[in-house]
Amino acid sequence: MNSNSKSAGPRIGRYLTRNDDQCFKEFLNDSDSTHREGGRTPHPELTEGEMNRFFLLRAYHRANTSSPKTTQIVTTATLMAAGDVIAQKAIEEKDSIDFKRTARFFFIGLIYVGPVLSTWYYRLDRLLPKEAKYRAMKMMAIDQGIFAPIFLPGFLAVAGAVHLQKSDEIIETIKHDAVTVILSNWMLWPAAQVINFNFVPLPYRILFASGIALFWNIYLSWMSNQGVQRATANHPGEKSMADLSDNRPE
To answer: Which Gene Ontology molecular function entries are recorded, alphabetically (predicted)?
Structure first.
C-alpha cells in the first residue's frame, strides 16, 4: 500500500486500522515475513522492539486466517475461564481455585458465548451498508438494544443448565438477575462497541470484545454463581452447581 494513501484513519506505521481490513492484514503479513527471514524490519517507522510487541497479534492473525471461527470461539472461552479465576480470587477471595467451576465457564464459552458472538458480529456487519452515516453508532444501537437483552438472559439460562440447575431454578435466576445484568451491561458495552465497530477490522472484533470482556466476565461469573447459591439455599437437599463445583469439606 502506498504510504501517501489518502484514506482516513489512525495508522500503525504506514498501515491503516480504521475500516481497512486489507491494510491491517498487510501490516501483519509484512511483519510475519520480517521475523521469518530473521532480518530487520523493512519499515523505518517501526523499531524491532515495536515489532516484537505485535508477536501475539501476528500469531492470532495466522490462526484467525486459517480457522477463524474456531480461533474466535477458543479465544472467548479462554478469556471467560480467566475471568472466572479472577472472580474467585479477587472478588470472592477463595483460598483455592475451584477448577471444576472454571472448566464449566470455559465450556459455556465453547458452546454458547463464542459461537453466538462470532456469528453475530459477522451478521451485524452485513446489516448496514459500509457507507452508512453513523454506521458504528447504529450497529451499537442494534447490538445493545436488541441483541444484548436476548443474549444475556440466554447466558444465565445456559449457565444454569451447565451447572445442573432445574428449570424452575433457572427461571428464578433469570427473573432475579437478568435486569441487573442488562443494566450493568449498558454501563460498559455501548462505549466499547462504538470503538469496536468504528476502529477494529471485522475479523478482530471478537478479540477486542473478548479483551474488554475479561473484566465483564468477572462480573458475569460472580452473578451466575450467586444465582446458583440462591438455588442451593432454597433447595438445601438437592445437588446444584455449588455442590458439584465445591466438594471441599465444611
So the answer is: channel activity
Handedness of CA 213, 150, 199, 42 (dihedral sign): positive
Cα distances (angstroms) measured from residue 164 to each of 45, 158, 222, 231, 236: 55, 10, 17, 11, 14
Q: Which of 39-43, 52-56, 68-72, 179-183 has the lowest mean pLDDT?
A: 39-43
User: Cα separation of 209 and 73, whole Å?
Assistant: 12
Check: CB of residue 83 under 8 Å from CB of residue 213: yes
Q: Which three cell numbers, joined as nine digits, stand for 145?
A: 438494544
Q: How far apart are CA 118 and CA 75, in angstroms?
A: 11
pLDDT at 146 over 70: yes
pLDDT band at 237 (very low <50, low <70, confident <90, very high): very low
Give the chain as a 3 state SS string: CCCCCCCCCCEECCEECCCCHHHHHHHHHHHHHHHHHCCCCCCCCCCHHHHHCCHHHHHHHHHHHHCHHHHHHHHHHHHHHHHHHHHHHHHCCCCCCCHHHHHHHHHHHHHHHHHHHHHHHHHHHHHCCCCCCCHHHHHHHHHHHHHHHHHHHHHHHHHHHHCCCCHHHHHHHHHHHHHHHHHHHHHHHHHHHHHHHHHCCHHHHHHHHHHHHHHHHHHHHHHHHHHHHHHHHHCCCCCCHHHHHCCCCC
| C-alpha–C-alpha distance, residues 102 and 166, integer Å | 20
